[in-house]
Amino acid sequence: MVSAEGGSAPTNELDTVPQHVAIIMDGNGRWARQRGLPRLAGHRAGTENLRRIIQACVDFGVKILTIYAFSTENWTRPQEEVGGLLALMSRVIDRELDNLRKNGVQIRHLGSLDELPPDLQSKIRHAVQVTAANDRLVLNVALNYGGRREIVGAAQRMMREGLAPEQVTEQTFSRYLYTGGLPDPDLIIRTAGEMRLSNFLVWQAAYAEFYATPTYWPDFDPKEFRKALVAYGQRTRKFGGLPDADR
Ligand code: IPE
Ligand code: IPE
Ligand code: MG
């Protein structure tokens, strides 16, 4: 699925490409309802789109892509939808892993494996293991992920390991998160119009640029993605300071 030649769109005009993009892939259900289809058909279409966006990341030069696939709150959905989603994820790994591996994508999992069905757990472990040495694109899959749970988990681990209070700095804390060792996202995209984080990357989002679009995730194609990257390139990131022009 990811090829070196690319094919999504030319990379020119994009002078400031974010290194790390995170996406809240929302709107699958509404996309399906709009077409009179069951919600799961929307989730299926969403996975097809993911393939295009992964390729677009390689084409545009994004080095890290983090996707929100299933939140710790999504368990509250009807059992049928949850079961369908988990089965779909299993199938996506079966279908895509070989290609991702061959094309240099490193898969990482953000979240807890604990509540997931055992066969999905082992498929995720396997996918992470066999792609660990890849470095063309890091693909973080937030699955059974909750930002607050991540923070609490980090605090628990630091306490268990006996860290002294002075050792608990922002740097140390970051290392204990699921994203330990990776830079924070530069750009967070949310599809389908909602203006909230929904417990996504609560710590890491501190200075990310936020981009929201009404487009539903299955329709968020590489052209739309490119628009988000162009918008990012026009932002002035200040990190609390003053831009050069005002100094
Ligand atoms: C996002 O689409 C996918 C997941 C949360 C798993 P939704 O299923 O939330 O779609 P909407 O928001 O109902 O349209
Ligand atoms: C966020 O979408 C979670 C994922 C995209 C996986 P939701 O649809 O679950 O978020 P809310 O419920 O609208 O906040
Ligand atoms: Mg939603």
Would you write up a description of this structure?
The structure is a single chain. The chain has one domain: Undecaprenyl pyrophosphate synthetase (3-Layer(aba) Sandwich), CATH 3.40.1180. Helix content is 40%, strand content 15%. The chain has helices at 28-34, 39-60, 79-102, 118-130, 147-160, 170-175, 222-233, and strands spanning 20-24, 64-71, 105-110, 137-145, 187-190, 209-212. It has a six-stranded parallel sheet with strand order 3-4-2-1-5-6, sandwiched between helices. α1 (28-34) packs across α2 (39-60) and α3 (79-102) packs parallel to α4. The chain is globular, with a radius of gyration of 18 Å. The model has no long low-confidence stretch (mean pLDDT 95). Bound molecules: 3-methylbut-3-enyl trihydrogen diphosphate (2 copies) and magnesium ion. One 3-methylbut-3-enyl trihydrogen diphosphate (IPE) binds at residues 24-26, 68-71, 74, 194, 196, 198.
